[in-house]
Fold each of these.
Amino acid sequence: MQTQLILVRHGESEDNLAQRLSGWTDSDLTPVGIEQAQRTARHVARSYQPTVVYASPLRRARRTAEPLAALTGLPLNLHDDLREIYFGQAEGLSIPEVMERFPTDWQHAMDDDDLDFGFPGGETRRAFYGRIGRIFRQIIDRHAGETVAIVSHGGVLSAFLAMVAEGRPQRWRAFYKQNCAISEVVANGQSLTIVRWNLTDHLSSPLPDTP
């Protein structure tokens, strides 16, 4: 029984603009991000007709998902395991600030194959990838045969796509998604296939009057 996953990265956030590590920091959407969320909601509702909507509870993801839930009349299922990686003491810092305060950790952070790396007080990559794998499998098993829209974060969705494509979530950089980009993954039992990746045409096309 085929399950369709429609993966949406949240809209542009204040921390995206400031180029800060915002993991679990509750950064809000910018006005551009709000418009992106509205455009994405209309496109996803019209083109995919989801039967379920999930989102990270962090504000930037939740506020991106809310217009879609409203348009479709579906409840918004919030799940903590869809949150971005937790950066610990590096939360809210810009890259130059991280490099200055945590120079040794920054060097380790550049080695994507170091799965046990985590900023001080933060989440290791191994733990992060583990929870991503678990939550997506749970969603697929729970909603077999349905079309599931999932609004989450760049790190979460890119790592999941890298898992599907290569079995190596640490290759997430090769699958990075723009704000409010859409990807589609189809699940048939244990088999997962990427159908579309990083679609953004809906962000510049005219808004339809109805979903």
Note: The mean pLDDT is 95.
Amino acid sequence: MKTLAEFKKFILKGNVIDLSTGVIIGAAFTGIVTAFTKGIVEPLLALAGGGPQPKLTIPIMKKLVDVTEKNAAGQEVIHTVNKLIELDIGGIIGAVVSFLITSAVVFFVIIKPMNKLVEISNKNASEEKAVAPPIPEDIKLLTEIRDLLKNK
């Protein structure tokens, strides 16, 4: 029962709403980041590696592979072909750059303004708490009388 109460508190606290909002915003933002990465970042990376996309690869080994093709008569012919196995560094760089761009935009567009709003809200709340209502004169007088009686 205690776990159920904790779960209810978690749900009602708003973390689930914040999380779901983040997921929705992230999904909607993916299109913008993808377009930016494909339109601007990948061509700049392609300058280093050549080609329309960043084609930075490291060859590992060649492997013989059987490939089935149809000839002009429509018969299947099996050819043995050397296939180059390679690491796709360009794809990794593209994914890292895309992640960094997404993270930076989410931080500066969503997180930073929200932190500032929370800071302003907390500051206003603390200022409201800091201003104590004035103590009435009769309470002050009674407090002084009490203190004098304690000292005697």
Note: The chain has a mean pLDDT of 78.
Amino acid sequence: MFLQHERPQHEGLEGRIAEAVAPTIEHMGYELVRVQVSGKERPVVQIMADRADEAPFTVEDCEAISHAVGAVLDVEDPIKGEWTLEVSSAGIDRPLTRTKDWNRFAGHLAQLELLVPQEGRKRFKGIALGADAETARLRLEDGTDMSFPRGNIRRAKLVLTDELIAATAAPTQRN
């Protein structure tokens, strides 16, 4: 079972949805990476997940999560009216929403956007150096190491590079 602090941080409607669906997803052997709601007329609820065993994420995983989460959201009814559910893997150029994501992908290029400017800027790009519960760290392109309060990070994600592709490629089978 996963502890609350290991889940990604969400607020408002996305927070209520995450709170409702995370226990079900975790019970099924998955980890919640992100909940995002977009659109006004017919909102789209995007659930991004990983397999807890770190095995490759499949279409069948998406289907299983979609059925389970759809049932939970039908009961919880956090969005009035019609809405659409999308379930996906975090992908290669994944969002960095949890401490474990920052630490797992330390050494790879990442970009982040802040809620409140730091040193006069809201956007930063550099090599992920890891994180703890309060702070995420990047080595900027000029070699400067910077720390960012996790609560001030609006969004952060990996940047697709050849190194990242090589590091996340499935191992080849040899006979």
Note: The longest strand covers residues 121-131.
